[in-house]
Fold this protein.
Amino acid sequence: MGLLTPLDIRQKELKKGFRGYDERQVDKFLDEVADSMEQMLQENEQLKKRIADCEGRHEQYQELEQAIKDTMVMAQKNAQELRENTDKEIKVIMQGAYQRSEKIIQDAEEEGKEKIAAAESQVEEIMETYRQMQKQAQVFKAKFKTFLETQLELIHEDEVRQQPSEILDGELNEDKQVG
C-alpha cells in the first residue's frame, strides 16, 4: 500500500465491533490526523519547491562558478598570450631599431669615408696646384731675375758706352776752355 492521503484517512470506514471505541472520538481524531497530515503534506510540498528552487539556484551558481572559472582561465590564457605577443613585438621592434641604427651608423661611416676621401682629394688637388704655383713662381723669379740681369747689363753697357764719349766730350770741353 502507498502513502496515505488526508482524504484516505477521512474516507476510511472502520468496522464497528462490540465494545469498540467511541465513534465520535475516533472520527474527531481521524479528522485531526487528516488535518495534520494535510498540513504536513503542504509543508512538505513547499519544502520540495524550496529545495527545487535552491537546487535550481545551486545549479545556476555552479554554472556561474564554472563560467567564472572558464573566464578566469581564458583571461589568464589571453594575458599570457598578450605578454608573449608583446614580448615578440618588442623583440621585433628592438631588432628593427638595432638594424636601422646599424644601417644609419654604416651609412654615416660610408658617408664620412666618402667625405674624407673627397676632402683628401681636394687637399691633394690644392697641394698640387700650390706646388705648380711654386714652380711657376720659381720659373717667373728665374726669368724675371734673368730679365733684370739682362736689363742691368744693358744699362751697364750703356753707361760704359757713354763714359768714353763723356770722357772725350769732357776732354774736348776742357780743351775748348783752355783754348
Remarks:
- The chain has one domain: 6-178.
